[in-house]
Amino acid sequence: MPTASTTDGGDLLERLRAAGVVRLGIAGEIPFGYIDKDGELTGEAPELAKVIFKRLGVDRVQPVPTEFGSLIPGLNSQQFDVVAAGMYVNAERCEQVIFSDPDYQMLDSFIVRKGNPLGLRNYQDVVEKKAKFATGTGYAEIAYAVEAGYKESDILIVPDQVAGLNAVEAGRVDVFAGTALTTREVVKKSGKAEATEPFKPLVGGEPHVDGGAFAFRPTETKLRDAFNVELAKLKKSGELLRILKPFGFTEDEMTDLTAKELCGG
């Protein structure tokens, strides 16, 4: 009786075990979930999914690439079984899908010139020092800077962290804001710039931490709960960090946050 199965948490896990394969929605984003140059599925979320689903009795994962904005609609229209794209958990998304607990947290960091001559450690410093500020197209960091008192029309918007690094190196801006992960990775080859210590931006006056997780259809609580059990074991054993490390994640990105906290519940 399919109607009964949806009321008690869904039967997707049983169906995936029977099929031996789970379809993962990915958005082609490095380092979260993408197809590499050899045509293989990789990224922090797919690699973690491979381990967890194997433990749940599902041996294979199959990528279903789509646009980031189509991940939730695609999940809910059953084009794939789970979103494995490092998706940030927020209240708006929590109304449309259910999330596992986050497998990583993300803080912000700045790209500055070597030695951080202006002493920029957070958005308040940027405002106080009247620093020339840049960030990426559509980045959450725009709102964080505006909340600290930076005028939005004064922000230089660049395509990505590579363009941000170039702007800092060329002296067009004093600082570029991004996630701790992207800034740390992009400055590795730079002789002129460095990344600052990760920090929590203020949202509504409170320190804010983002967290990324896997998304499931709202009826599939059984699968989400089974996934969380395995995820918790990987966190406890330290294996989670080992899985995520090749993609630039460090101890700073490990988290005990829950989906409930990030959903605002």
TrEMBL record:
Entry's SUPFAM superfamilies?
A: Periplasmic binding protein-like II
Q: Report the SMART domains cross-referenced here.
A: PBPb (SM00062)
Annotated Solute-binding protein family 3/N-terminal domain ranges read 21-251
Keyword Repeat assigned to the entry: answer is no
**Presence of keyword Nucleus:** no
Q: Which InterPro entries match?
A: Ectoine_EhuB (IPR014337), Solute-binding_3/MltF_N (IPR001638)
| Matches recorded under Pfam families | SBP_bac_3 (PF00497)
The record's keywords, sorted A to Z, are: Signal
* TM ranges: none
Query: In the record, which residues are listed under signal peptide?
Result: none
NCBIfam families for the chain: ectoine_ehuB
Protein name as catalogued: Amino acid ABC transporter substrate-binding protein
Q: Which organism is it from?
A: Streptomyces griseorubens
